[in-house]
Amino acid sequence: MKTALITGITGQDGAYLAEHLIGLGYRVHGLIRGQNNPKAEAVQRLIPKLELVEGDLLDQSSLIAAVESTQPDEVYNLGAISFVPVSWRQPVLTSEITGLGVTRLLEAIRLVNRDIRFYQASSSEMFGKVREVPQSETTPFHPRSPYGVAKAYGHYTTVNYRESYEMFACSGILFNHESPRRGLEFVTRKVTNAVARIKLGKQENVLMGDLSPKRDWGFAGDYVRAMHLMLQQDEPDDYVIGTGETHAVEELCAVAFAHVGLDWQDFVGTDPRFLRPAEVNLLIADSSKAREKLEWQPSVDFAGLVRMMVDSDLAQESAKCE
Ligand code: NAP
């Protein structure tokens, strides 16, 4: 039986990855931070076989202890401040957790057991002001937020540990991926939740930032399969993961409202408070390397993903008493 340690276990991807690995027969440990973290109970209830271990990406010795006590074959570093707007409001903390946290975890692995395989959750936000379309593993980075900068640091740290210490360290450059488990602060879930609440008469409208940026949106359940596949290869490498389709935020609104028989233009307003200091205008993945070498491909398309999220929000909002 293989053992995995996942940071970011209480996040969207952490839960999908843990379920995937347990389904494959892994023993899975999830790193949980803080004293009496309120999300611990929820994730434990969702995944009863999951074993929680204490630790924080800000705390070097806790990471060493977590790696030592769990003795994993594979470590997946999904922990981060992952919401771009927060990274502007808390840029130093973002650099510490999303950036330096990668060094701390790699150091823990290097000190405890260099044979452990390592996955780093890198992001298409590293491409930022894109130098080419679509973006592949060889596209230069030009991050446009403290989050993107911290992820670029984490990516190069991963490559550096691979090259310096011959560690099996992979960076997955994942484009946006969503699900009914996406945090409510993220644009997809903000829209699908608002659609559900408007349909049920609980909310009148929704205020958004710029509706023109385009993203390559996939389903998180598909993307965690790619993370695992990267660590099963003969050689460590970096892979872009995305659908190869791009859609504007406006299209997201149109598809989500249309699914419940409403016209988005009647309910969506804009508010300058939601504009970013620097925007990323167009992201679209060239994931041909992953499709060829990992034999990975997505199973859910954009419209299917949006409908899945709206349906889930409708069910959740209908069940809530207010
Ligand atoms: P998420 O839902 O925001 O989850 C972030 C996780 O990081 C949470 O479990 C959080 O724990 C944990 N965390 C925050 N600070 C920490 C710290 N100091 N020490 C340890 N853990 C800490 O993110 P996600 O969507 O699952 O994404 C997973 C990873 O992939 C992230 O690194 C993200 O940046 C990256 N990524 C995501 C996407 C996407 O579209 N989803 C795309 C590219 C890359 P608490 O619950 O305790 O706060």
Can you walk through the features of this model?
There is one protein chain. With 322 residues, the protein is an alpha/beta fold. Helix content is 43%, strand content 15%. It has 11 helices and 13 strands. The protein has helices at 12-23, 38-46, 60-70, 84-89, 91-112, 146-165, 187-199, 220-230, 249-259, 288-294, 302-319, and strands spanning 3-7, 27-32, 51-54, 74-77, 117-123, 169-174, 177-178, 206-208, 214-215, 218-219, 239-241, 247-248, 268-270. The strands form 4 sheets. Strands 3-2-1-4-5-6-11 form a 7-stranded parallel sheet, sandwiched between helices. A two-stranded parallel ribbon has the order 7-10. It has a two-stranded parallel sheet with strand order 8-13. β2 (27-32), α2 (38-46) and β3 (51-54) form a beta-alpha-beta unit. The longest helix has 22 residues, at 91-112. The model has no long low-confidence stretch (mean pLDDT 97). The chain binds NADP nicotinamide-adenine-dinucleotide phosphate. NADP nicotinamide-adenine-dinucleotide phosphate is lined by residues 7-14, 31, 33-34, 37, 39, 56-58, 78-82, 97, 121, 123, 174, 176-177, 183. The site of NADP nicotinamide-adenine-dinucleotide phosphate has 28 residues, from α1 and β5.
